Amino acid sequence: MLIDLVQLRTFVVVAEEEHLTRAAERLFMSQSAASAHVRAVEDRLGTQLFVRTNRSLELTHAGQLVAKKARELLNQEALFKSFVRELRGQIEGRLVLGTSSAPGTRVGEMLTSFRTRHPLVNVDIMARPSSSARQGLASGEIDVGVMLCVPTDRAFTYHKLTTVQYRVAAPAAWRDEVVAAGWTELAAFPWLTPTSSSAYSAMIAQMFADKGLTLNSVMCFDNSSVGFSALKAGAGLMIVREDEALQGEQDGYLAISPLARAQADLCIAYQTARKNDPLIKAFVEAAATVWPIVPVEEADAIVGGLTRDA
């Protein structure tokens, strides 16, 4: 029995997203194609892998077992390709880069340096929040991630690029109340929160959960640009990059809480098992010509943290 690895990857992404449309968008394919891939895997295995609920797809027990084995197989495929390149010392083929929309990523400059050095490599760029990028790295769906992250997964190697500062921002009309608010009052405001960013979630946890407070989240978003638009429109509070928050304050449409500052690390990440892959080594070397990078084990305070204003 032969299983198509492309179809199997589609099945894994659908299992992770629990939603056919979101999985298709993540894989840059049509919903009908994603559905056909899942049906093909089910037909090959002769078993039902999903049950449909009101809003999502849930794995059957068999589906859970298959998803676990499928991730292992796809990871082995990525490692095998890495091994072949390592064996041949070959720097050609295709590099899939997952990246967030964080400031200062300088992805364009890094890729220009990479392509100048290695013109035989084609590059696919995928916009990914940090949690989705981690899933893609684990399954071999992407080769390298440039993302905001909390570098705690020992399966990955991280190189720190910089630390990005964040502020708590609110609509300008709420300025007086937000500036005067303590932690409890701040948590009680309407909040806009991300659904799929571990870095944002970690910052929120450090500011509020560690104090025993739960945010009054009234709206969730999976795209920071959409969240920022809702913030500007007056929908609620949000953690925003410091440069955007200060610009919004200067332009008169945002207010900034003076209570706390959050930060998150911007890193390059890849599977540790692939550290000798010529393709990945070549990207890291090219990135280092644009922006000095620091391996996590040498970085100070690598895990994003919280600092309070004095």
In words, what does this structure look like?
Helix 1 packs across helix 2 (20-27) and helix 2 (20-27) crosses helix 3. This protein has helices at residues 5-17, 20-27, 31-45, 61-88, 107-117, 130-139, 175-180, 183-188, 198-207, 224-232, 242-251, 278-290, and strands at 50-52, 57-59, 93-99, 121-127, 144-149, 156-171, 190-194, 216-221, 238-241, 254-271, 294-295, 306-308. With 310 residues, the chain is an alpha/beta fold. It contains twelve helices and twelve strands. Strands 3, 4, 5, 6, 9, 10, 11 and 12 form an eight-stranded mixed sheet that branches. A two-stranded antiparallel sheet has the order 1-2. It has two domains: 5-75, Winged helix-like DNA-binding domain superfamily/Winged helix DNA-binding domain (Arc Repressor Mutant, subunit A, Orthogonal Bundle); 89-310, 3-Layer(aba) Sandwich (D-Maltodextrin-Binding Protein, domain 2), CATH 3.40.190.
Class based on secondary structure composition and strand pairing: alpha/beta
H and E order: HHHEEHEHEHEEHHEHEHEHEHEE
Q: Helical region count?
A: 12
The whole-angstrom Rg is 21 Å
- What does the main sheet amount to? 8 strands, mixed
Q: How helical, in percent, are the residues?
A: 40-55%
CATH first level of the largest domain: Alpha Beta
Number of domains: 2
E-strand count: 12
Beta-strand proportion: 25-35%
CATH architecture of the largest domain: 3-Layer(aba) Sandwich
Shape: globular
CATH topology of the largest domain: D-Maltodextrin-Binding Protein, domain 2
* Low-pLDDT sequence parts: 298-310
Distance between the termini: 65 Å
Would you tell me the overall average pLDDT?
Answer: 85
